[in-house]
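I trust your eye. Have a critical look at both lines of this record:
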Amino acid sequence: MPAALMYNLCHDRYNWYYHTVAQKNMGKRVIYWPRGRVWGGCSALNAMVYIRGHPLDYDRWEKEDGAKGWNFENCLPYFKKSETYSHSKGPSDPYRGHAGPQKVTRSSADHPLHQAFLEAGTQHPIGTTDDVNGYKQEGIGHFDMSIDKGKRCSTAAAYIHPILSRPNFHTTSGITCTRILFDGTRAIGIEFIRKVNFYGTENIDSYSREKIYCESDIIVCAGAINTPQLLMLSGVGPPDHLRAHEIPVTVGLPGVGENLIDHLEIYVQQKCTKPITLYNKSSWRYPHHMIKIGMEWFSTHKGIGASSHLETGGFARSSDDVEHPDIQLHFLPSTVHDHGRKIGTCHAFQVHVGNMRTKSRGCLKLFSKDPRRHPIIDPKYMDHDDDWKEFRKCIRLSREIFAQKAFDPFRGEELSPGDQYQSDAELDNFVRAKSETAYHPSGTCKMGQESDKMAVVNPETLGVYGTENLKVVDASIMPSIVSGNLNAPIIMMAERAADLMQGKHLPPEKEMTLPKFEFCEIAANPNGWGPLGSPPALDTSIPFQQYNKADRIGRVADWIGVDRFFYRRGNERYNERMYGSAANAGSQFDYVHGMDENNFQLVDSSKPVQRNPQRNFRARQLQFRKLLQKEQERQNSSEPSRCGSVAEETHVKVSDLDRLPSVQVRPDWRVIEEMDFPRLLKLNLPGVGSGEDIDKHQYGTLHFYDKAIDRVSVRTPVTLQRCGGNFYNVTTTEDPVIEELAQQGIGNVFATDIIIATLMTAPRSVYSWDIVAHRVGDKLFLDKRDTGGISNPVDALTVSETSGDPPSFEGAGINNAKDLATEALFINQNFRRQVLKRNEHPYVMAHPRAPFEEEGGESGCGYRYRKWTLGKNANGKPIEVVCRTEHDGVMVGSVV
């Protein structure tokens, strides 16, 4: 039962019940260190919080610690392979696994105090995160739990129990391995003892000694304490230390037992003004409550017993100079004392908080050569001055979070540290007296290069240096501790180790590590006019402005940069100055303007190409488009050629004559009427009422908008994330709902919101090159032109009335129309998903799935079909526009 974790954690039947030596920096306190002595090790004792750590932790392993091959690119595939995540998006999920043995569940966090903690994250600069194991670790969010259907999913439950019936798999329990047997430096077997006399005196004679020999590898997975102890008992370790205990030296490795690292944490506790904590429900003071919880869990695997209740938490950076989060918080809607061995006295809640990357390093030594005696454990807590600074920040950060408005209904007095602890010295005293282990010892047989004298394990083979057939796979080989709990990283390490030992590996996921979106540098002259540089070939007497009037009418700035301009030939530079376009002469954005503010015109010089007939359009639609294409070709062939002559001596083509402009403004024109832009912004057009929904034609699911996005600032930026999902490009004549409405006689003009928006905002004309009109009887369909045969197949509407060609494609350059449109589509699709609470239950419309969405491939969008009456046409018949509107999200409390 997950809620009974304190019983396992504090009972010596299930754990080794280790203790450290008195800590000189902790008031000479001896710290209790529970470690699992059951199948599954500490995964059978821990709080089931499943945290991978930060990607940069693993990159640091390779770059700084010498663990070649253990960067995040190589580790991510094994994180995904090992887990089945309850909120995974399937094989397309870039970060989460969906078919692994380790079951991982996203916590529900439905307790009011958990909800308050999550809300506090939106009010504090720390912010929130949708997935602490996904793209963005930093922030407050739901914790993942190694819980499957209300039961703990230890590594034994995930990996061992399902294969117990295999004929080639043998297990035994109730034994203690005393040493590894060597033939020279080659490991050939193990020696172990089994207790045969369970009564009487506790001496070595009450155990039987046995040996097992093997010809293959011996793999030690005893953990950060027992692994170095076993190696030293076997003669592998610091030579002087082994001789002091009269142990023959097999291989001298001074790093065995060194580099001991652990997470230390402190509890910040707040009294709760409402009786809603777990104090009454799970306290030993109320055994009848515990009996009720147990009966409910045993019968249903639900209720309070089905969770460890550390369901929310977060990660923060101690300062802006820190590259990635170094503070972790675990929130609990109750309080614990002395590892749960003491019970609370009132309704209260707490946060466990600590420094994730301590600079203190301890060590582990043998107490004696008797394998039954616990080793000497000295983590040397708080041995570095920076650790004290970090813990002060940890406590103050916790206080700031509890001080947020979300906790106003629950916040009582501070129980721990208490209001009397404010200064640095006072907080240091509190840490010295009350901090405890977070149960994450590691690093005592670290991976590293052979040139590192303290390295014990080869990172590429996991073999122990100086030995043969001996390998280690557990937390002891971590060269440095990760920023989070250790269960998930150790499972990943074991999965990768299994492949390494078989000479294989999963391919790295380079595109999934830390996707970043960075703006290109925009060239600008701080002095106003003129380029940033003036090479001799440039006539500087002509005024020049890199970004000119096109921007003022909505043209998107060109990000190619000034270098592109300087490498143009002289006449091309002149054309760019005259036309102001940073694109080619074939671009739909060319324009001509005068030198004053009131004189400009837009000119198009693009040409169409033959469409690709392979796309699966309806036969009638395809035939209609072919007729249009032939008619256009006939008209083009009948017009006189506009090309000039070719200057043979220079082989330079003379520029095309200007086409008639589709938009022109002259300074001598009289203003007849000014547009009422405020009314246009509200789409409050005269004579046009608000649209009405058509019956129950509402489809899809909508996620709620994350209001935390409104608080994004320069101080708390949010990086664009890669968010998986489905995208449907279904045009008007391909939409089965529009087809049904047309057959029912509802409406006579049909379009989508994208097409109507294009018509309303086109800067040249109300007729875009991408939009075609089909008339069927008395009905008009505004549709998207088929772009399957051009070089820019992305669904991006271009604006071009007089063009003959679609936008040109410049090949492999990153600034061609295709790549820019693809990038824009990528940004838009990912951004609209990033600003939503995708891990919460969505709002479901009348029909959960649109007819054109595939089963299981929902886009996460909502679709409403609406109708507007625009008055009457020339024949006196009403004009009724039916439009499919697409919605990306929904606000809490809004009416859809």
In short: The longest helix spans residues 619-638. The mean pLDDT is 77.
